[in-house]
Specification:
GO terms for molecular function: DNA-binding transcription factor activity; sequence-specific DNA binding. This protein is of the alpha+beta class. It is built from 13 helices and twelve strands. It folds into two domains: 179 residues, Jelly Rolls, CATH 2.60.120; 113 residues, Homeodomain-like (Arc Repressor Mutant, subunit A, Orthogonal Bundle). Helix 4 packs antiparallel against helix 5 and helix 11 packs across helix 12.
Length: 298
């Protein structure tokens, strides 16, 4: 297996592809002009956005591999592992690439809210597939950033480059919203599997062994990243994944209330709560009554 390379700088990113560095902290590359690169895995210190225009080698992305079959855009954030597993193989990059160092956006509006672009934390099966029209909008952003980098740097340069990066990311956010809609049947299937997962969880010994189910646990069981799962639930139900999960927990608790042979504390412990008072507090928040009041009412 290849040695993992640290990708620390824009210059390193450009040099590997045989392209000129116009700015030390940000670059946009037409990958058709890049030289062939050796397959390797890298630990990114940069934000990287790849627009792939045709099929290429299977790329390691998150915890799996992605095989590009159409126009696809993926996002890599600092601290993520990406690249290729094969050794000593050269490939020709294609499409476009945007890479920028976190220092480039420090102190800017983008730097303050880039964490809101959750797709930087999505995983392999959650890549964005774009139509021809959508690709045209994205390419226009790449072109504008590239043209600005070719100009002589002045006091407007950074602001204009960052505004176009932000525009590109906003387009991607819009296109992801569209993808959530066009894949509604897939999303509904995920929610169905999520509900079954929670139901089966409380009929197993897992509550006693590992406590309450978490959003991260459910996302992993559904083979999704927590951020993508959270966004999917929000768009489908209007609730956060945490709220949706808590409602499922309360639904399970209501069923157990009819077992008169168990105390409220026993029910709480049996569901994975560490402390009965935490269960009582959550129940009151969601139902409007304490567990004891609900039991007496029913």
């Amino acid at each position: 297996m290849n040695k993992i390379i640290k990708l620390d700088s824009v210059t390193q990113f450009n040099t590997e592809r045989g392209q000129e560095t116009l700015h030390p902290l940000v670059t946009v590359l037409d990958q058709s002009k890049s030289k062939m690169i050796k397959m390797s895995r890298f630990f990114s210190g940069l934000y990287v956005v790849f627009l792939k225009e045709e099929k290429c080698a299977d790329m390691l992305y998150g915890r799996g591999h992605y095989d590009y079959q159409q126009e696809t855009i993926i996002f890599i954030a600092p601290g993520q592992l990406a690249g290729f597993d094969e050794e000593d193989t050269l490939i020709q990059p294609n499409g476009w690439a945007l890479a920028f160092h976190p220092d480039f956006i420090h102190g800017t509006s983008l730097g303050k809210h880039i964490h809101n672009y959750h797709f930087f934390l999505y995983s392999i099966q959650e890549a964005l597939h774009v139509s021809e029209r959508e690709k045209s909008d994205l390419l226009d952003c790449f072109y504008k950033i590239q043209r600005e980098l070719v100009r002589s740097i002045d006091r407007h340069s950074k602001k204009l480059v960052i505004s176009n990066i932000e525009l590109l990311l906003n387009y991607c956010e819009r296109f992801y919203d569209r993808q959530f809609i066009t894949r509604e049947h897939v999303n509904r299937d995920i929610l169905t599997r999520f509900e079954s997962l929670v139901d089966n969880y409380f009929t197993s010994d897992k509550p006693a062994m590992i406590g309450l189910p978490t959003v991260a646990y459910c996302a992993e069981e559904l083979h999704l990243s927590p951020k993508y799962f959270g966004d999917l639930v929000k768009k489908e139900t209007g609730q956060s994944a945490q709220e949706y999960l808590q409602n499922k927990i309360i639904d399970a608790a209501k069923e157990r209330m009819f077992d008169a042979g168990k105390s409220i504390s026993e029910i709480a412990y049996g569901m994975g709560f560490k402390y009965p008072q935490h269960f009582a507090r959550l129940f009151k928040q969601r139902v409007g009554k304490t567990p004891q009041e609900y039991r007496l009412m029913n």
